[in-house]
């Protein structure tokens, strides 16, 4: 291990590049688990895609950020923005105004209020009035106050039922569509195989505290950089509910969302099973409000992780069958295994190093491991900044804290995985009881 | 042959007096009745002539008191009241809307209009999405309130816009753009009753300055006095106070009854000769107290309350007027209570 560390650290030193060039072939042919599990595998899975994106951007920028058409080939298609929410009075006003004033004329907005106990409906109507000058439903804005709480999936289905658009945007009530985003969002649909396009999700409240700053760094790498690469090799697995656009025809044919958990992941998976491609648009920017407290962040992440387990392992486990839904879809299903594999491989590498050097060598091993992670992050964050102008420069130093943040986030994730796999506390409080009792897949 | 203006005026006055007399004879009030052929949908049962105009003139001259009866929506193009008001589709403007309760299937989340769900022989419905039969309303499926479905273009909306089509001229107008007029009912006032008793309307020279049977000035007169007092304040720096007097028999547990005139006369007897009382609104009077500072006015108020006794139906309050905004505040307070300034 000492030899490995020596080679590796000498490689970091620009004065001994020559030494690294001699060491690298030896490392690549070595059987050192630390080398393979801590360096090679993470580089291949995480860093290499980022570098490829960056190289593509340098060589041909339009590949990464295609310009909108100077003159549309045909009249702008009708786009329906569907938003469902409960007790969203703080954000629904700016959400509606943002969508209606986003610079796309042929757009209608539908807000389904899931039986809020606050004044969400009144605020939504006021926001609509400020733009359309009408207190009633209009061609551009329609608001449906649901008489009973039905959960998000059903509320979105009401909105989809009311939508007339050729394309339907599914949008969170705490997200804001950036001016000009819709034109970029529609570009990938020139390919008829594309069923849905994910927006570039950016953090609106990143300056609130350290937690939101770290989330901005995370979103830049996970929602921007990773999605771009995944979409290019057709292995994108989800269009986030924070901002996604779909072909209306497909979404109607599917009957909308299924009740229960993970509306966005579920719909994305159903699209993939229908052999449609999911795409990503770098310039279709949607600003979202991320959780500002530990409690809310953990709740969000537990929900996300439970969705993954439920949908991948329980509801759509047939995706794992090679050949049933195509190779790319099997790869997507395997991403779950990879997602679980990376921490496991890193742990194996770590334990191997401990085994080799004993506990007295532990600080050195952990430190080395930490610096490797920081270096990987630095590469990714630089690429994200260059390609997508995110995160903010002021948040760059947070990469030194980021490994701890990831480790800290693993706690709710692990809890969610175990509770879902072993059905501990399986009831989800955000699904109303009368819906929960009828859902067949969990 | 040219018309004689003096004769015309006499004819009009006679007609209005006749109208006033009919109102007095029929219980002191006249209300409009619905009449489809009338221009604005209502008409007054009265002898020929421009009754609505005569009533408005008499109300302006304080022979009658106008009270809200109904609001009539009119076509902004032809002023007609024959409107067909209905909900329309926000998109295609068609009135061919059906109000339907959307079905929501809990099991799969499908939301659709009832015809999309196939009725089963056992009374249930088959969901078009999951093909599962749903039987029990409330536990398996639900109705999501009412929504309007356009039979023309299929658009679903919850609160569609309302539009009126004029049956006279065919103009289509959004409901919020319709013009409206108010139909009034009229009650005869003490002045109107006096005019009927005298058998003629009052001329300019015999315009009474006091409310009939009471020792108080009419509203217009007392406002003139207030204005004059205000000028004295501004030019000669002479502050004064006003005493607001409210006729509130309901608030007194057991007042000994009697007309306002009786109590106002008693009140007048408690004031100085230079103090003036006038009527501001139906049950609101004001006493102008020149040269009275706040403390003097308050002392006066207490003395009057003692004088009138605990069974007095008059509620008194005093305000010292030291600058223009004090009086404005008092008058704004009256407006805030729904009483005229």
Mind explaining what this structure looks like?
- Chain A is of the alpha/beta class and 442 residues long.
- An 8-stranded mixed beta sheet of chain A has the order 3-2-1-4-7-6-8-5, sandwiched between helices.
- In chain A, α3 packs parallel to α14 and α13 runs antiparallel to α14.
- Chain A is globular.
- Chain B is of the alpha+beta class and 341 residues long.
- In chain B, the strands form 7 sheets. In chain B, strands 19-20-18-21 form a 4-stranded antiparallel beta sheet, with helices on both faces. Chain B has a 3-stranded antiparallel beta sheet with strand order 1-17-4.
- The C terminus of chain B is likely disordered.
- At the A-B interface, β3 and α7 of A face β8 and β14 of B.
Task: List key phrases describing it.
heterodimer, A: 442 residues, alpha/beta, 8-stranded mixed β-sheet, 16 helices, 54% helix, B: 341 residues, alpha+beta, Arc Repressor Mutant, subunit A, Alpha-Beta Plaits, 21 strands, 28% helix
The value of Rg of chain B in angstroms is 31 Å
| Tally of individual domains of chain B | 3
Under CATH, the homologous superfamily of the largest domain in chain B reads Reverse transcriptase/Diguanylate cyclase domain
Quaternary structure classification: heterodimer
Tell me, briefly, the overall form of chain B.
Answer: elongated
What is the structure about, briefly put?
The complex is a heterodimer of chains A (442) and B (341). By secondary structure, chain A is α/β, with parallel strands linked by helices.
List the helices and strands and how they pair.
The complex is a heterodimer of chains A (442) and B (341).
Chain A lengths: L1 H11 L4 H12 L4 H27 L1 H4 L14 E7 L6 H9 L6 E7 L6 H13 L8 E5 L6 H11 L4 E6 L2 E3 L3 H6 L7 E10 L6 H23 L10 E5 H6 L9 H11 L3 E12 L5 H22 L11 H31 L4 H27 L13 H20 L11 H4 L6
Parallel strand pairs in A: 1-2, 1-4, 2-3, 6-8
Antiparallel strand pairs in A: 4-7, 5-8, 6-7
Chain B lengths: L4 H21 L3 E2 L2 E2 L7 E2 L7 H10 L3 E11 L8 E5 L9 E4 L2 E3 L5 E2 L5 E2 L5 E2 L6 E2 L6 E3 L3 E4 L5 E2 L4 E5 L5 E3 L4 E10 L1 H9 L20 H18 L3 E8 L12 H11 L5 E6 L2 E7 L3 H15 L5 E8 L2 H13 L5
Helix pairs in contact in B: 1-3, 5-6
